[in-house]
Design brief:
337 residues; 41% strand; globular
Length: 337
C-alpha cells in the first residue's frame, strides 16, 4: 500500500512538472547590447541589438535540452555551416519592399554605394521587462539611410515553457510616421535561420565553413546529420510547402539523437491570413503575410498602404518541441487567439 501511494505521488509530481508553466527570467546586459532569456533556469535565447547589425533579433535560440537550433554564422560561426545570406541572423522580422526600400537583405555585406536602396531597423529602447508574464517589450524605428523614420515599431515578446516545449509569441505593432506602402515581395516577414541539422540534404557544391572557420567551396557534400523535413497543415511536405498558404508550417529534424520540431503559427487576425510560406531547404524558415504574386502568380495583387499615424499589428507564435504530431500542432493553432 505504501509503495502504491509513493508511486501515485511520484506520478502526480511528474505530471505537474511536465504541465506547469516554467519560470521565465531576464538578464539585461547593456554592455553587450542584449537581454538574455532564461526558462526553467536554463538559457533559452537573447534579444540582441548590436550596433553593427541592420536589425534586432533573437539569437541564439536553444531547445529545452540545450541544443542550438539557429545557425551561428555570421555572429558565432560554427564549422561546416553555410556562409550565404549574412542578413539571416537568429529570428527576426522585416520586409523586402517598404516604400521601395529593402529592409530584409540589408547587412554588412552591402556596399556603401548600394546602401541607399536599403532600410534599417534602428533600436530605440527596452520598454519593459516582466518576468512574471515572461514579457519583453522593445521599440525601434524603421529608417532609410538618411535616418528618416518610416515606421515606429513596438514589439512584445512573450516567452514560456512547459515540459520540453519552448514557446515564443511575437506581437509586432507598426505605426506609420508618414504614408508607407508595403508592396508584395517574397522577402519577409517573420524569419528564422536554422542549424545545419534542420536543412534538407544538399545536392550541389556550396560554400561552407571548414573546421577552422575558413570559407571553403565543398564540391562533395557531407550530409551526415542533415535531415530537416517541412510539412504544413494541408499535408504538403519538403519543398512543396514553399509558396503555399497555411495556418502553420512545421520543420522536423533529429539533432544529436533528439527529435526537435519547430513550428511557425500565423494568427487569424493577421493581414492576408493564412500567410505564404517562405521555407527553404537551406535553412531559411519564414512566414510572409505580404507575399502575394511573389509566391503565386495567380494571387491577387498585394499592397498595403498605411496613412500617417495608422497602425498594423502582426502576431506570430514559434513552438520548439519534440516529435509534435499534426493534432498537437492543430491544438496550438486553435489556442492561438
Amino acid at each position: 500500500m505504501n509503495k502504491f501511494k509513493f508511486l501515485l505521488l511520484f506520478t502526480s509530481v511528474l505530471f505537474l512538472t511536465c504541465t506547469q508553466a516554467q519560470k521565465v527570467q531576464f538578464k539585461q546586459v547593456d554592455k553587450d547590447n542584449k537581454v538574455e532569456v532564461f526558462v526553467d533556469n536554463k538559457f533559452f535565447t537573447a534579444f540582441i541589438y548590436p550596433d553593427n547589425m541592420e536589425k534586432q533579433s533573437l539569437n541564439p535560440i536553444i531547445s529545452s535540452s540545450g541544443k542550438i537550433i539557429t545557425r551561428g554564422y555570421p555572429l558565432q560561426p560554427r564549422p561546416f555551416e553555410r556562409t550565404d545570406h549574412p542578413h539571416h541572423v537568429g529570428m527576426w522580422f522585416n520586409f523586402g519592399d517598404v516604400n521601395g526600400l529593402d529592409f530584409w537583405n540589408n547587412s554588412f555585406a552591402i556596399a556603401a554605394a548600394e546602401k541607399p536602396k536599403y532600410g534599417k531597423i534602428a533600436f530605440d529602447k527596452i520598454v519593459s521587462l516582466n518576468s512574471k508574464l515572461g514579457k519583453l517589450i522593445v521599440s525601434a524605428n524603421w529608417i532609410d539611410m538618411n535616418k528618416n523614420v518610416l515606421l515606429n515599431e513596438q514589439t512584445s515578446y512573450v516567452f514560456s515553457g512547459k515540459g520540453n516545449t519552448r514557446i515564443i509569441e511575437r506581437i509586432t505593432q507598426l505605426t506609420a510616421k508618414n504614408q508607407v506602402t508595403f508592396t508584395e515581395n517574397k522577402e519577409g516577414l517573420l524569419g528564422m535561420r536554422l542549424d545545419r541539422a534542420f536543412e534538407e540534404p544538399a545536392t550541389k557544391p556550396e560554400i561552407f565553413l571548414d573546421a577552422k572557420g575558413v570559407e571553403t567551396l565543398v564540391p562533395v557534400l557531407n550530409n551526415e546529420g542533415v535531415n530537416g523535413v517541412y510539412r504544413n497543415a494541408e499535408g504538403f511536405k519538403a519543398g512543396e510547402v514553399w509558396g503555399k498558404r497555411s495556418k502553420w508550417v512545421a520543420l522536423r529534424a533529429v539533432k544529436e539523437g533528439e527529435v526537435i520540431t519547430i513550428v511557425i503559427l500565423d494568427h487569424p487576425n493577421n493581414l492576408n491570413y493564412p500567410a505564404w510560406s517562405h521555407a527553404r531547404g537551406y535553412g531559411l524558415f519564414a512566414s510572409n503575410n505580404i507575399g502575394g504574386r511573389a509566391f503565386d502568380k495567380n494571387s491577387s495583387p498585394i499592397q498595403k498602404v498605411l496613412a500617417t499615424g495608422e497602425q498594423m499589428v502582426f502576431k506570430h507564435k514559434i513552438i520548439i518541441g519534440g516529435d509534435l504530431t499534426d493534432a498537437e500542432i492543430n491544438q496550438f493553432a486553435t489556442d492561438f487567439k
